[in-house]
Amino acid sequence: MTDQLKKLLLGEQGLVVIFIVAFALVSLLVPNFLTDRNMLGLLQSVVTVGIVACTMMFCLAARDFDLSVGSIVAFAGMVAVMASNYTASIPLGLIAAIACGAVVGWVNGVVIAKFRINALITTLATMQIVRGFALISSDGRAVGINSPDFYQLALSKLLGIPTPVWVLAVLFAIFGFVLNSTVFGKNTLAIGGNPEASRLAGVNVDRTRIWIFTLQGVVCGIAGILLASRITSGQPNAAVGLELSVISACVLGGVSLAGGRATMSGVIVGVLIMGIAENAMNLLNIPAFYQYIVRGVILLLAVLLDNLRSSALGRR
After folding, report:
1. 3-state secondary structure at position 143
2. pLDDT for 167-211, tens place per residue?
3. Where are the alpha helices (DSSP H) in the chain?
4. On the CB side of 63, how many CA atoms lie within 13 Å of its CA?
5. Are strands 233-234 and 157-158 parallel, antiparallel or unpaired?
6. What subcellular compartments does it reside in (predicted)?
7. Mean pLDDT, rounded, for 71-95
8. Would 198 disulfide with which of 87, 166, 203, 234, CB 3.0-4.6 Å?
């Protein structure tokens, strides 16, 4: 196989080919996959992963990780429900949830950027801390939603498509624009490529990293609100393992674990591939225990693909 062919197959065109092949195989082999109901269900099922992947892409592109996203999503959902119930105002509940997500993200960013603590260790710690807050605030139990209007955040539709899917599409468009057409996006990729060279070139590396993690917290707040609405309660144990699914989707989509490389189109394809795999397993009634094995295999394959891409592009 020539180097040019390798680059083609491992680039964005290769991702599209993988997606088309996966979609075709699942369509042929899995009963009821192509039904309208299942297609809408598939889109709804990738909303949480897709929303969080929008900013996880920036974390990975800047050579960082965020393992706390699942806990932030669960905590934000709890805050949204509890604040809405307490104040009898859904807008206040939504603002409180997004604000809490932003604060946790900001803390992650400050600790990582200013105190020079490894992102893996920092977010592993906040993953435990924030999950603990979610459990303590609810006494370890699910919190029911008082207002039926809260359900409409997930149940309402526009042009026949669920509102959360529209939210996901808007966030894809916004963060795709930010990555490709703003100084912030270019600085993120530059930091991932070479942090020290970026600092010498005048990029405020610390501030950029803090903003990346703050934005990560904001989108986790949004994801938590929509998830709580969809499952009709605030669940302190929601979104367990979300961080692995999000990282897998990003890496499948061509975001480099070594930093400096990311595309929104690739992330979208990665999210859809993960969604198809989950959907197919559910339609085939594969037990949940076996699904963990499949997810682990997908993560390993994603890392292998990242290594192959780096080699094809001449990077170590």
Report:
1. strand
2. 999 999 999 999 999 999 999 999 999 999 999 999 999 999 999
3. 3-10, 12-29, 36-45, 47-61, 69-87, 90-114, 119-138, 152-155, 163-181, 183-193, 195-200, 205-230, 242-252, 264-283, 288-312
4. 17
5. unpaired
6. Cell membrane
7. 96
8. 203
Element containing residue 158 per DSSP (H, E): strand 157-158
CA distances from 161 to 44, 170, 275 (A): 9, 13, 17
Give me the sign of the Cα torsion angle 173, 271, 56, 100.
Answer: positive
Sequence letter at residue 13: Q
**Side-chain-facing half-sphere of 268: CA atoms under 13 Å:** 15
- Residues 69-73: what's their mean pLDDT? 98
Rounded to an integer, what distance in angstroms lies between the CA atom of residue 212 and that of residue 26? 36
Q: How does strand 143-144 pair with strand 233-234?
A: antiparallel
Query: What are the φ and ψ backbone dihedral angles of 239, each rounded to 5 degrees?
Result: 60, 30
CA distance 224 to 80: 8
Domain limits, the chain: 3-20+38-309
CA–CA separation, 250 vs 244, rounded Å?
Answer: 10
* Dist CA 187 CA 203 (whole Å): 7
Give the C-alpha separation, 291 to 313, whole Å.
33
- Residue 316's pLDDT is 45
Fold of 3-20+38-309: ABC transporter involved in vitamin B12 uptake, BtuC (1.10.3470)
Q: What is the pLDDT of residue 9?
A: 54
Q: What is the DSSP letter of 144?
A: E
Q: Which two tokens stand for residue 309?
A: 């891409």
SS3 at position 140: coil
How far is residue 300 CA from its own chain's centroid? Answer: 18
Which segment of 65-74, 122-131, 257-266 scores lowest on mean pLDDT? 257-266
